[in-house]
Amino acid sequence: MAHIVSLAIEACAVLFIALGALGALYRIARTGMRSKSSDYQRRAVWLTFARWLVAGLTFQLAADIVNTSFSPTWEELGHLGAIAVIRTFLNYFLEREVEEKTELQEANRKRSA
């Protein structure tokens, strides 16, 4: 049962990342076609995509936890620990980047207004 739940959660993670990537590609193409596209618009595309990535990484970590929650071996726990550390660092730095870019966006918007 845990394996089925894990697969469903992994499917959600893949869906989030795929939707984010497709949306980013669409918005990059749309923004790139405009001659007057601003840095603000390009950063907005990046921020949106980064949020989708953070959601996907979070769901992938959840799937790994569910997958090893029932009678794990020491090797599985070691793999989970390594994966958790790597994904936590990725998630942390992505979230930090999103926060910094969001603050920069807000500051630029206030100066423009």
Automatic annotation (TrEMBL):
Residues spanning the membrane: 6-25
Sorted UniProt keywords: Membrane, Transmembrane, Transmembrane helix
Name of the featured protein: DUF1622 domain-containing protein
Native source species: Variovorax humicola
